[in-house]
Write a structure and sequence with these properties.
heterodimer; A: 632 residues; alpha/beta; Rossmann fold; Elongation Factor Tu (Ef-tu), domain 3; 4 domains; six-stranded antiparallel barrel; 17 helices; B: 269 residues; 2 domains; two-stranded antiparallel ribbon; 8 strands; 11% strand
Chain lengths: 632, 269
């Protein structure tokens, strides 16, 4: 939840250490006559006592410790007024150690001023802060090129820096609202235009430009998101309270609470002191409602209208920043909070760590303090969430390690399916009919049991090749066996499906159902599908839990790409195939497969034999063997 | 009241209620300090809004026995009028305070000690306080959920990150959290909201004979400022113009350059 308001625009001032952020703020306050009378005297007195010129940054650096160290330690909030409106400045310190304070500040802002030293140009912090603005979704950015007096107010230098900074920001999808040459020390182009020192500059001053900015579009028009904070039972009623983060809710609306999917109708909107009856609430309000049904609702559930419910998933991708001394590693488990939901999340993969210096990403590696990365989280329970781009409040989460906030980030569902349908649509009125032939009898006649041997692996790992060869081998030895192969199934049964996350999920669901039936009929069923999502393989296992074997056909991405039997990788790299596993869509390796077949290490014959031996040992009829032993 | 100002106040109200409810859902036991001034009375009113007319945790006045008469009168009247249970905790005497502190700070330190005793005796894990960022630059550095160590001390150089309305609600045993639901309000917001919601306040804030109190503290260390604002409207008009700081009449803030910093770091509210 974030406070929105129309009267005050929260802005954040960021940039490299010593590029003049605090000085700019001091100037802004002084030039807009927003400085308390005693503050100015106090600062003048302190500055002269220490034998320094008037230092504008002393306005903010009010801690004794800070004055001595001459760096800002923490986020400070300061108010100033222009004739148009008032502003809250959130001062974000530039020292590398203090990133968490910058985040604390910038996360509340609607707009940012990025301060750049005219002499030094773009530095490490400049880039890091710009990247974080991008990560926090801040779009309104003013670039202030400061200390123009130190470069003799040179227009050419200004143009050169403008070009550098624009190019850098464009790579982050940030297009600055303005680039303004200023001198905080001289008061140039802050509230007063610098006609004398920089006659070549015809644009807005900082203050003029700020007054043109707008508070972010209200979240009222988005689908309703009502994260439940608590359920009060002060009397016989159950009152559900929380902050309405987006959308509107009216009396009589049917609300669905996720992830439990319980639905009820809003009966009343409660308030104290009691008001003339309120029939509607909208985004930005802290609300209290009652429902017509005593459904199960508790803190953490997300209320929405049924037709615009958030996604459900227990796996999602995050773009995150890391603040903790202890690195984030694959396999680590963290407490996360997403709206009012709390969950334990395991780091399944670190897909990229991003160097904010050059924005080049490198694969793998731990995420260290002040680092930025793209990771995949997996939770045990379903979470209700939205991609950040759809809805910020349910699209970002904060990560805790021990007692402390360790990081935060925004949710991306790219490559992952909404699990709501699979999770919700439990058949209610279907009763299975019992066969008159028990499994044992079928197995006796066939001479072996039916089972599913589920291959998973990247495209090019060798799934089809191994599967078809094993089928031949087993058939020749008298087994009843049949392979379900990805490409073959897509020609018929799954002709209607594409490669979106939802379609992939449905593809696997159908194959799982068919393979379950085949196994039930007594066939040794081998499936050869990439089946990239752990979730889907687990669902397949759930259909025939006693006769399901997950076989990981293993080869790394580089090897598969090298083999590329169908030229698919080339096409995917060229962008001709969208959502290609391993390239533009995730592959989740099995956690604990029943068998690993390494096609990179071993030749085809060895692999075939490995699988065939495994299958034969698992389809034997146990009781016949027992009988034989007891007879002998 | 102009519509955009009212909207602004409603946003502040919603955020404060959210904070109160977050604390209530996550921390137990809680206690609220009521100093009877304009800020903590506004906070008390917001508590009743958040919990639909109730005050679901103890409300405590840390009494130095040095408040002004009007403050005591107002306290007793409101407690009856709003019908809540008020606990009055008397602070330890000045003779027990750190003698190296300047005199007015020493008086203020009594409250710090009173608060420490209260937290220790009640084993409280969370304390609601009505402080605001714009009051004083040390307070500007505060977090909404601000941890204190075993001695009630505030490590302002290493504070937890706080963003997206997700707060620090877990902490080691023996420590506690100060919760500041009004942190983002300004003095002007408080008076405008007091007017909008018709919240009662101590009459000392109104000018008499050219002087009024902008901030209320103990008798011996609080002084009125020059003002002719003898109505709520006049106070609001005055604040829209003034550049004088709110706590100019509070001696303890102004004794030495770092007086208030030392007070705060050692646990003052």
């Amino acid at each position: 939840m974030t406070a929105q308001n129309t009267q005050q625009l929260p802005i954040v001032i960021v940039g490299h250490v010593d590029h003049g952020k605090s000085s700019l703020i001091g100037r802004l306050l002084y030039d807009t006559q927003s400085l308390p009378a005693n503050k100015q005297k106090e600062i003048e007195a302190i500055s002269s006592k220490r034998g320094m010129d008037m230092e504008w940054s002393f306005v903010l650096d009010s801690f004794q410790a800070e004055r001595d160290q001459a760096i800002t330690i923490d986020t400070t909030q300061i108010w100033f007024k222009t004739p148009k409106r008032s502003y809250v400045i959130i001062d974000a310190p530039g020292h590398r150690e203090f990133l968490k304070n910058m985040i604390s500040g910038a996360a509340q802002a609607e707009a940012a001023i990025l301060v750049l030293d005219a002499k030094e140009g773009i530095k490490e912090q400049t880039k890091r802060h710009a990247y974080l603005l991008h990560l926090l979704g801040l779009k309104q950015v003013i670039v202030a090129i400061n200390k123009m007096d130190l470069v003799k107010n040179d227009e050419a230098r200004f143009n050169e820096l403008s070009k550098d900074v624009s190019e850098y920001l464009a790579s982050l999808n940030i297009f600055p609202t303005a680039i303004i040459p200023i001198s905080a020390r001289q008061g140039d182009n802050i509230a007063n235009s610098a006609e004398k020192s920089m006659p070549w500059y015809k644009g807005h001053t900082i203050v003029q430009k700020l007054d043109t900015l707008t508070a972010s579009a209200a979240l009222i028009e988005k689908p309703a998101r009502f994260p439940v904070q608590d359920v009060y039972r002060f009397d016989e009623r159950r009152i559900i309270v929380g902050h309405l983060d987006s959308g509107r809710i009216k009396i009589g609306d049917k609300l669905t609470f996720s992830p439990v999917n319980e639905t009820a109708t809003v009966t009343t909107i409660e308030s104290w002191p009691a008001k003339a009856e309120q029939t509607e609430v909208e985004a930005g309000q802290s609300i209290a409602i009652t429902l017509d049904q005593p459904i199960f609702v508790e803190r953490g559930h997300i209320g929405s209208h049924a037709e615009d419910a958030p996604m459900l998933s227990n796996v999602f991708r995050m773009h995150l920043f890391w603040l903790s001394d202890k690195p984030l590693k694959v396999g680590n488990v963290y407490k996360i909070r997403l709206a009012t939901q709390e969950a334990l999340a395991t780091v399944q993969a670190i897909e990229k760590t991003i160097d904010t210096d050059d924005l080049k990403s490198s694969e793998m590696g731990d995420v260290v303090r002040n680092g930025v990365a793209e990771i995949v989280f997996r939770t045990r329970d379903m979470l209700a969430l939205d991609p950040f781009s759809d809805n910020p409040s349910t699209g970002r989460c904060v990560i805790y390690d021990g007692f402390d906030v360790a990081g935060g980030g925004i949710v991306s569902m790219e490559g992952y399916a909404d699990q709501r349908m699979a999770y919700v649509q439990r058949p209610k009125n279907i009763y299975t009919v019992e066969h008159l032939i028990p499994h044992e009898e079928r197995a006796q006649r066939n001479g072996h049991k039916g089972a599913v041997f589920w291959f998973t692996g990247l495209s090019g790992a060798g799934k089809s090749t191994v599967a078809m060869n094993v089928e031949r081998y087993l058939f020749d030895k008298g087994y009843n066996t049949y392979v379900l192969d990805g490409d073959n199934v897509r020609h018929g049964l799954n002709k209607d499906l594409g490669f979106s996350p939802e379609d992939r999920k449905e593809n696997i669901r159908r194959v799982a159902a068919v393979s379950g039936l085949q196994a039930d009929a007594g066939l040794i069923t081998i499936t050869a599908f990439i089946s990239p999502y752990r979730e889907d393989r687990e669902s397949a296992r759930a259909l025939t839990p006693d006769h399901f074997h997950e076989i990981f056909i293993k080869a790394d991405l580089a090897t598969c790409e090298n083999r590329d039997p169908k030229n698919l990788y080339k096409k995917a790299r060229a962008g001709d195939i969208k959502e290609f596993t391993g390239i533009s869509s995730p592959y989740e390796e099995p956690d604990n497969p029943d068998l690993v077949v390494d096609t990179q290490k071993h030749d085809l014959q060895t692999c075939i034999q490995q699988v065939a031996d495994y299958i034969e040992s698992h389809v034997k009829i146990a009781d016949i063997k027992t009988k034989k032993i007891s007879n002998s | 009241m102009n519509k955009s100002i009212e909207e602004h106040l409603r946003r502040l109200e919603a955020e404060s209620i959210y904070i109160l409810r977050e604390a209530y859902a996550n921390i137990d036991p809680l206690v609220m300090l009521w100093s009877i001034g304009k800020d903590s009375t506004t906070l008390l009113y917001l508590v009743k809004k958040a919990f639909l007319g109730r005050v679901p945790f103890p409300l405590v006045h840390l009494d130095t026995d040095m408040e002004m008469d009007e403050v005591y009168a107002f306290r007793d009247w409101i407690a009856k009028e709003w019908d809540f249970d008020l606990t009055i905790e008397h602070c330890p005497p000045e003779s027990e305070m750190d003698p190296t502190l300047p005199p007015a700070s020493r008086a203020a330190a009594r409250k710090t000690q009173g608060l420490k005793n209260l937290i220790q005796d009640g084993k409280y894990e969370g304390v609601f306080l009505g402080i605001r960022r714009d009051e004083q630059s040390m307070r500007a550095k505060e977090r909404v959920f601000s941890p204190r160590d075993n001695n009630g001390e505030w490590n302002f150089k290493d504070q937890p990150a706080e963003f997206w309305g997700q707060y620090k609600t877990d902490f080691p045993e023996g420590t506690h959290i100060r919760i500041h639901p009004l942190l983002h309000w300004t003095e002007l917001d408080i008076w405008r909201y007091t007017q909008l919601e018709n919240i009662p306040y101590v009459p000392l804030y109104l000018a008499r004979d050219g002087k009024r109190y902008r901030s209320l503290g103990e008798k011996n260390i609080t002084f009125p400022v020059d003002s002719n604002a003898d109505t709520l409207e006049a106070i609001i008009a005055e604040l829209e113009e003034t550049r004088d700081p709110e706590r100019a009449g509070r001696a303890m803030d102004n004794e030495t350059e770092d007086a208030f910093e030392r007070l705060r770091a050692s646990g003052y509210m």
